[in-house]
Amino acid sequence: MVQRLLVGETLSLDLVNTEWVEHGAPVDFLADADAADVWFRDYGFDPESERLDALLASRRAIRECLDEPGDAADAALNDVLSHGHERVLMVEGRPEKAIETDPGWYAAWSAAFAYTTLLATQPDRVRQCAHPDCVLYFFDTSRNGGRRWHSMETCGARTKSARHYRRQVSVEKATDPR
């Protein structure tokens, strides 16, 4: 099974980040049925009662909202959201939220709903990694909101290393007597 690059983000971003590019080739963590079951379990969903096609539809819709926001992206996300709803009930004198979804859509709907919640609270903190070859998204939790890479150890280091290399080559060309 393929090892995921970035985990620990919000549910919606962790779902989107099940696709990435590695050595120039696209990788889809959910393409393996066993990996999909792991993803469902990791987030508290029962793989036996969830539909992978629904989860993939949610991932496509969220990614479309991130990559190409607009009417088509809104429609795709709304389609996923139409498979469930959240309501408030009074239970023993206290309000409690109840989620109802179509069979097999609980994980997909939850990820889409989590994305809308993220947008409603701090949309400016949802970022794509600044490395030009990276497709991962993250929620910027830095104090000043200036985080640029999903990981300083991978993309951040690669970007800084490439910048240093370009400077060195430029200096060598400038000082070459030929």
TrEMBL record:
PANTHER family: BLL6575 PROTEIN (PTHR35525). Pfam families: ABATE, zf-CGNR. Residues 125-168 form the Zinc finger CGNR domain. InterPro entries: ABATE, ABATE_dom_sf, Znf_CGNR. Gene3D superfamilies: Jann2411-like domain. This is Conserved protein containing a Zn-ribbon-like motif, possibly RNA-binding.
